[in-house]
TrEMBL record:
Residues 19-218 form the NodB homology domain. GO terms for molecular function: hydrolase activity, acting on carbon-nitrogen (but not peptide) bonds. It comes from Limnoglobus roseus. This is Putative beta/alpha-barrel-type carbohydrate esterase. Transmembrane segments: none annotated. Gene3D superfamilies: Glycoside hydrolase/deacetylase. One of its GO terms (biological process) is carbohydrate metabolic process. It comes from the Bacteria.
Amino acid sequence: MTGGKPRASLSLDLDNKWSYLKTHGDAGWDKLPTYLPTVVPRVLKLLADHKLTITWFIVGQDAALDHHADTLRSITAAGHEVGNHSFHHEPWLHLYSREQIHDELSRTEDAIEKATGVRPTGFRGPGYSASEAVLEVLLERGYRFDASTFPTYLGPLARAYYFMTAKLSPEEKKKRAKLFGTIADGHRPLKPYRWETARGRLLEIPVTTLPLAKVPIHLSYLLYLGRFSRFAARNYFRTAMAFCRWAHVEPSILLHPLDFLGADDDGDLSFFPAMDRPANWKLELAAEVFDGLARHFQVLPMGRYAATLEGVKLPVRQPDFVRKS
């Protein structure tokens, strides 16, 4: 702690335009359209204005493209951490074989290191997808933490919204059947713990949801609520942070690129909540969230937060993921 403040961690899943289109089942994703040259400098400036450093979970396919190298290197040049967000960004990682998981992680590690100069040691699965095999491979590859769990009961509702707006075949829907998790995920803890696997123990840092209710509190949901009432969005976040302090939960807050892009930047992603609002409207609310988070917490990137838990006795859990099907 610094100045008596509890800690919090902050991260951004650097999903690109093509990865959203791919998950949504839209044509043209395989041409790998990108908004990274727009969104990365914009987020870096906002973070610098608030004197915050965070963890950026990078997709390997993006890091492997030479035209993204300068953009991605600007992240580590600004003092931020990088993490592994898989190579192909397929939220059915739980269907992968062990060999496929090794390949997915290895290719991403190499690409991120080449682009940014840093090799990642933290992981978040796309669409919160994970499995016991993923945890074991992470340990085998020397990862320090996983951040793929999202303890909420609303995962199936988010998935239903995606399916309503997506153009997916029955086979594609089957692959995405666990996208955003299941109702059972809501029973998982909010506080960090260690997974017990055949390969050892791995630190898990869950994405924080509202204590007790387990409803999402990350920025995308606040922006969606803000479409109806900015006052309600602000007070919802303030209440969530108060609940976290009351429950002694050190929040891990998640960001997405579309939290910082508006309809004036890209009109192809209207299926994503709040993409009908201009970028400045989103940036104003994001700035308020950053101010509120920093007011009550010492905000750290996830790797630095994980380091504070080394040697700390944490609860131990057996993996409870749905088996491959």
